[in-house]
Design a protein that fits this description.
Blueprint (H helix, E strand, L loop, with lengths): L3 H5 L4 H30 L18 H9 L7 H11 L4 E4 L6 H15 L10 E4 L3 H14 L7 E4 L5 H7 L5 E4 L1 H10 L10 E5 L1 H4 L5 H10 L5 E6 L6 H6 L6 E4 L12 E7 L5 H11 L4 E5 L3 H14 L5 E4 L5 H13 L3 E5 L14 E4 L6 H8 L9 E7 L4 H10 L5 E2 L12 H10 L1 H19 L14 H7 L10 E2 L4 H6 L2 H10 L3 E2 L17 H6 L9 H8 L23 H6 L30 E3 L10 E3 L2 H6 L16 E3 L6 E3 L6 H4 L6 H47 L4 E2 L14 E2 L17 H12 L6 H14 L1
Parallel strand pairs: 1-6, 1-7, 2-4, 2-5, 3-4, 5-6, 8-13, 8-14, 9-11, 9-12, 10-11, 12-13
Antiparallel strand pairs: 15-16, 17-18, 19-20, 21-22
Amino acid sequence: MAPQGQRRGGKGPRAEGFQKSKSLKRKREEEDVDALSQRVADHDSKSSSPPENFVDVPLSQATQDGLSASHFKTLTTIQSRTIPLALQEADILGAAKTGSGKTLAFLIPVLENLYRKRWTNYDGVGALILSPTRELAIQIFDVLRKVGRHHTFSAGLLIGGKSMQEERERLGRMNILVATPGRMLQHMDQTADLDIGNLQMLILDEADRIMDMGFSKTIDAIVEHLPQERQTLMFSATQTKKVSDLARLSLREPEFVSVHEAADSATPSTLQQNYVVTPLPEKLDTLWSFIRANVKKKILVFFSSGKQVRFVYEAFRQLQPGIPLLHLHGRQKQSVRLDITTKFSNTNSACLFSTDVVARGLDFPSVDWVVQVDCPEDADTYIHRVGRTARFGHDGRAVMFVDPSEETGMLNALEKKKVSLEKINVRQKKMQQTIRNQLQNMCFKDPELKYLGQKAFVSYVRSVHVQKDKATFDLKKLNLEAFAASLGLPGAPRVKFVKGEDAKARKNAPRQLLAALEGSDDDTDNTEEGGKPKKKKGEVRTKLDRMFERRNQGVLADHYNKLIDDEHEDGDDFLSVKRRFTAGDSDLDQANNDSDADSPSDSSQSPSKSKSKPNTNTNTTKEIKTLTLSTAPTATPLTIDSHRREKLLTSKKALLKYKGKGSHLTFESDSDTPKNKKAYRDEESFTAGGKHAAQKERSDYVAKEAERAKVMDEVDKAVAREKKREKKARQKERERAERDGRGVELVPYGEAEGDDDDLEMVGEDEEAPPPERKRQKSKKTRHAAEDEREQPQPETLEDLEAIASGLLASS
């Protein structure tokens, strides 16, 4: 046993042994890190014979264990060429076919570089991985968790659709972040605990899409927050080589690694690629027949817009093709999107209708068919779409439906990317009966499905209109009337176009921004079926104007059509009324002074509810009023030039912002009446009295409050003394009554209310004085009590019989 002094103040043998073992462990780890760093430095990253297995690469034991537990043993081509370069902290541009293992090519260097630098939670964020879609970010994060399970790093996932507060609480402890560009920039601007000043690595997965127009401004803003001295890795199946893109990311002599540049095709060799020449009106029939013939397969179907996805999903779901149907697009909630991707990954046979939101990077196991109903916008998008099948050496098949007008241009674009397709024909015996009539019946019975069909038609026409390759995508060569009929619609809806659009910029722009762009553009165009007149320069169009101009297959009722078609006899606009203002509101005195002399006499009616009779002799020019509702110099004059502004006059709350800046109201401690004066002093007048001014005001206030409390204390004591004196007087009165021989009578409950003691003092020889708070008894109650006292009480059976006979005689 250790001595008493050693047990209290010194270290025992056990503590010394623990410290010794801890120091030895730290020393071994440092030696391992030094040895690993030396192996990485000695490794020939540009060797003609790259490593084939992970054990041949200078990796830490924790990474080796994570790879072995995740069943990763052999390196792919992109991994064997990029991992050694990335371990030596070189900037890399990696390009490889889809499904070639690009995710591990940048996750392993992230773990290894941070491990060799002995990164801890106190060092902040060491690596940032950006992904263009939420689904791809979730997939990268899952792989990171599996491979890095034996490391001590903390990793976080930042994507839209989740709680910002929950992410913000954990960001201060994160070492590796996997994020989408928009959410990452939001945290950089709003989260104070996010420390990225010591960032070591920046990774861009699907770099060509991230550097595209949709994310360009976001990426520029993110890069401004990052340090210049860092390692940057960019991976994609179609890598960019633009000097401007590389300069924006501050790359330092990057190594370009392209695995399929010398290959015969940019797509896997195990992928069978075909296309079918299908006119646009027959695409849905062909798709229905294809799904019916492959009900035991796993099919991924691509459309150009989310509205098409939703319409086809709802329509086919009612037709019941005999295979589970799923749909995925960017307008869904994050929880729904995650649930759908999980279901499609775990199922053996299903059909997923989707947009390009799943076209990049996602790994769905065992996809049998990739069907492209709508042609992709370019060859790069085609490569990413078909990359969802034939992954990691497995077989896969892809088919694309091509309109005759798109065949030549699409094939030429794919040939430039070394992608060759084989043309196939649809067997007419395998074609099912057309579903056009069924869709028409469903749209007739279900207005919501018809509305979805109209939106799907408009979204497809706009997607074709905004394509850059006008030689391949030409609306004039498409039979839009027949296409609308194939969707079950009675006619082709009118479509409004905006000239000078960019396809990818419009595709990635927010919905509110698109609406603003459409509303602000003066140039409008229509389909060849005719349509609306072009908007004049400077003309302001309202929501009602657009509503009355619609001719969308009976959306408007008959009386609305009559309002549109019928013209007024005198040529004036329908219901043209001169604007008038009436009195009646206490807050509108200024408005009353400026009102016209011909205002209605009924001043009690508000302007918004007053009825104006149409007068054909009245000038229909809108009369504009300007009212100043406040005398403040900064008050904004209110212009009354519309019904909305006229209705504003009836709302006191809405008028507050037009009355100028208000003033503080100060309430005294002993008064409820506010005083219109400044409640706070400015700093200059406050500090004019010297440095002891605040202390003096404080002492004066304390003295004033103490004096007031002293006065109130005297008042309270006087009230307490008075109550005590009254209580003693009442008690002496009771004692005096008992000494005089007077009895005490209980007052019955409900007949009278006594004083605080609930007792009434009544003398034997005198009547009791009425109490101060006694209620007057009613005559009926008083007479009943007297009769009860006068009536003798029965003592024997004879007395009861006499009373009964008397009652019978009286009745």
